[in-house]
Amino acid sequence: MKKMISSALIIGLLSPMIVCAADSASAAYSVHIRSLAASCAACHGTHGNAVSTSNHGDSTPALAGVSKADIIAKLQAFKSGERSATVMHRHAKGLTADEITALAEHFSMQVPYNPVILEPQRLRADHAN
After folding, report:
1. What is the CATH number of the domain that holds 16?
2. Who's near 39: CB < 8 A, 6+ residues apart?
3. Which residues of 4-35 are buried (b: 16+ CB within 10 A; e: fewer)?
4. CB–CB of 33/103 below 8 Å?
5. Which residues contact 77 (CB under 8 A, 6 or more apart)?
6. Which residue stretches of 49-128 are H helix?
7. How far apart are the first and last CA of the chain?
8. Is the pLDDT of residue 59 over 90?
9. Which label site among 33, 40, 105, 111 has the fewest CB atoms less than 10 Å from its CB?
10. Global pTM?
11. What is d(CA 33, CA 106) in angstroms, rounded to the nearest whole number?
12. CA neighbours within 13 Å on the CB side: how many for 4?
């Protein structure tokens, strides 16, 4: 009986440590995925909301709100070489299957919106002084 109580006490004391370690690993993985997603912003826009810089509609596609399955399928196609691209095949080849799934989950949960492009403004010649 004493052994059972000691074992229960030890398990009770260690359980929060195990949960904390799992939460810590999960948090680290979340930071890792958000870091990967942040690198996507260079082309796909903040939180996956791409900005069109052309009147021809040839901007990089937005990722925000796209279905998880669609993003996974496209990234896997880039990774395998089935889908051609200028740089995406290189990015996708560096991702694991878990990272692809996590990125797809991340971008599918982002809220899509149309970013506003500010028009460039010229300074007046007398503005400098």
Report:
1. 1.10.760.10
2. none
3. eeeeeeeeeeeeeeeeeeeeeeeeeeeeebee
4. yes
5. 83
6. 68-80, 88-93, 97-108
7. 88
8. no
9. 111
10. 0.68
11. 8
12. 1
Q: Is residue 36 part of a domain?
A: yes
In a domain, 126, yes or no: no
Element (H, E) at 26: helix 2-44
| DSSP tag of 97 | H
Distance CA 94, CA 104 (A): 15
Helix (H, G, I), strand (E, B) or coil at 54: coil
Phi, psi at 119, each rounded to 5°: -75, 140
Tokens of 62: 């937005």
pLDDT recorded at residue 51:
80
Structure tokens at 11: 């398990």
**How many structural domains comprise the chain?**
1
Residues 72, 125: Cα–Cα separation, whole Å: 52
Average pLDDT on 45-58 reads: 72
Q: Is 109 helix (H, G, I), strand (E, B) or coil?
A: coil
Name the residue range of residue 7's domain. Answer: 2-115
> Residue 124: inside a domain, yes or no?
no
